From TrEMBL:
Listed CDD domains: HFD_H2A
Gene Ontology CC terms, in alphabetical order: nucleosome; nucleus
Domain (Histone H2A C-terminal): residue spans on this chain: 123-145
SMART domains: H2A
Identification of the protein by name: Histone H2A
Assembly information from the UniProt record: The nucleosome is a histone octamer containing two molecules each of H2A, H2B, H3 and H4 assembled in one H3-H4 heterotetramer and two H2A-H2B heterodimers. The octamer wraps approximately 147 bp of DNA.
Source species of the chain: Parascaris equorum
InterPro entries registered for this protein in UniProt: H2A/H2B/H3 (IPR007125), Histone-fold (IPR009072), Histone_H2A (IPR002119), Histone_H2A_C (IPR032454), Histone_H2A_CS (IPR032458)
PANTHER family per record: HISTONE H2A (PTHR23430)
Keywords, alphabetical: Chromosome, DNA-binding, Isopeptide bond, Nucleosome core, Nucleus
Domain of life: Eukaryota
One GO molecular-function entry: structural constituent of chromatin
Length: 174
């Protein structure tokens, strides 16, 4: 579930509510010794897994959420990196297209309407998000072909008017 209105991401896994209440849920250990000293005595600088992978999204958070979902017995680190990269790419693509829609509407602030326009105007994103509802997004603008409707409705109106006039004359004569 991606909440664009608050511009933050929250990933929901169905078994996440039950994970915190179950008895076999493992808490993360915080009392572990930190191995930051090299053999020559100097401290090493910590590098996050996201920085190692060259990503902005948190790889460790994805890994933890995937483990807590209890979908598989084991989750590899590369799966978390891959998922983080995919989500980062999709969000960058949506933000780029919605920024273009915002600029096209001569606005400086990105609102859910621009996100909806960006997603619905892109064929692949529209197919992927076909069942997604974006709050406060509105609908795509669609203008009916008015000249065709106007011409056919006028022809229909004239035919009905003529038939009613003809029937009225027949009824009056009888």
């Amino acid at each position: 579930l991606i909440c664009f209105e608050c511009v933050h991401f929250h990933f929901y896994f169905p078994s996440q509510e039950n994970a915190s209440t179950s008895t076999n849920f493992k808490k993360r250990q915080t009392n572990r010794p930190i191995k930051t000293v090299r053999s020559d005595g100097f401290k090493e600088k910590r590098i996050s897994k996201s920085a190692r992978a060259g990503l902005q999204f948190p790889v460790t958070k994805f890994h933890r959420l995937m483990k807590e979902a209890h979908r598989a017995k084991r989750v590899t680190q590369s799966a978390a990196v891959y998922l983080s990269a995919v989500v980062e790419y999709l969000s960058a693509e949506i933000l780029e297209l919605s920024g273009n829609a915002c600029r096209d509407n001569k606005r400086k602030r990105l609102v859910p309407r621009h996100i909806l326009l960006a997603v619905k105007n892109d064929e692949e994103l529209d197919k992927m998000c076909s069942k997604v509802t974006i709050r406060q997004g509105g609908v795509l603008p669609f203008v009916h072909p008015l000249p065709f409707l106007l011409q056919s409705s006028l022809e229909h109106y004239d035919a009905v008017k003529y038939a009613a006039k003809f029937r009225f004359r027949q009824v009056c004569w009888i």
